[in-house]
Amino acid sequence: MAIFSLLSELHSGKTNWEIKARVVRVYKQPIFKLQEKIGTNEMVIHDSTGRRIQLR
Fold it and tell me: What are 19-28's pLDDT values in tens digits?
């Protein structure tokens, strides 16, 4: 069984993480002044404690 980290335990000092989270929302962010072009795909996730983060 894998040991998962909570979102509150994430930090930039480590590059590989195992998390167990649920996707709350996924959306496409257009480029400023070029609404027909997609700049980034973004999502909001949350873990078992209810903590949420946004990913780009």
Answer: 999 999 999 9
DSSP β-bridge partners for residue 25: 44
| Cα–Cα distance, 33 to 43 (Å, whole number) | 22
Cα 31 to Cα 51: distance, rounded to the nearest angstrom: 28
Separation of alpha carbons 42 and 21, rounded Å: 15
Q: What are the tokens at 39? A: 């700049």
User: Facing residues of 5 across strands?
Assistant: 19
Both tokens of 31, joined, read 């480029």
* pTM confidence score: 0.73
By residue count, the chain amounts to 56
